[in-house]
Design a protein that fits this description.
heterodimer; A: 191 residues; 3-stranded antiparallel sheet; 3-stranded mixed sheet; 6 helices; B: 206 residues; two-stranded antiparallel ribbon; 55% helix; 19% strand; elongated
Chain lengths: 191, 206
Amino acid sequence: MTGFTQRLLKRETHSSRAPLSVAAAILVSLLAVYCLLEALLRAFGQPEWLVDPLTAADRLSRLPAGIPAVLLGSIGVLAFLLGLVFLAHAVLPGRRARHVMADPRVVVVVDDEVIASALARCARVAAGVTREQVVVVVSAASVQVNVRPTSGIGIDGGRIQAAVDSEVAAMGLDPVPTVAVHLASTGVIGV
Amino acid sequence: MNGTPRGFNRFLLGLLGLVLLVLGAAVVALAAVPAAGSWWQGWSAPQLESLRALAARTRLSPTMGSWIWVLAAACLLVVVIVMVAWIANQGKGRTGILLERAGSAEDDGAAGKVVLSCAVAEQALKSALSERTDLASAYVSSWNFRGQASLRVRVLPRQGVAPHEVAGDIGALVESLDRLLGVQVPVLVSIGSGARSRFTKAERVR
């Protein structure tokens, strides 16, 4: 695998952080535009719009006084939480729910949802049940197949396992997930 | 595969996050700890006085304010420009030229240039994919990824369609496109599910 392909796959399987970046940029620029307005009004000797910069600095310097402590504390907690969200977005890897599929010519990434729906179909055919009786959960390293049998009709867990295993092997996913089949102890009637 | 500056996104988000964390913690300390409040008042009052004195000393004319406000405005303007540039850089990188090759008189007897538009590959792939009934929709776009024109094929299969079969078929289509064009373009196939493929019923007969 070449460096070009690797870079491409890294970008496709990880989040770009673009939406939060745009939100942060809008937030900062709105704040900056407002401060710009007040600074310019002050520079040209015009009356202020909301608050004069020196008055604002004066209020800031006397801070615990002049504002209810609860309000001040909640503003602080809010800023702290917002900062935590930004920092977490900057530091966490941000993996997307996607797998890479092997192909000789093209580079393929598949959303986990598509894999789950294909495996559900495969498990449903192997078990001989309806769509509503199969739930498949796909995560990076594991596939969990939950089957609820029809009441009075036994189903073979081994056959489902083999069918889903061979389907997963045919997909050639990276990372390779392990398959676990779980049969519900109660059945459904009227399907 | 767009040119979003991901490292820069993370750096600025991290910087902003750290500033907000420190500010938030300081404000909470001001509100909760009386000693922090008295320290802050004792420290900031002389600073404010010196700022006032500076503003009064640097007054431009009796009717105008101090030039330090002009300086502050200039700094804020730079901040706004950086923020607008940051937004403008998200999701850029579309390209319209798939291949550009200059010919020379020694090469094949004709000097000139061959330019192949991305629309050639996009429309060929899209029309081939739109005939398939197991795909709810297909989009093809071209991007300039690290100086190399690349195609991005996004397909949304219906529920239950095996993704490796779709990928194999698209791979075969791309190989025939390679033969048609005479060049190998990097192709990314992204198989996903949208609202349309999620809510339409599964194909029962194929």
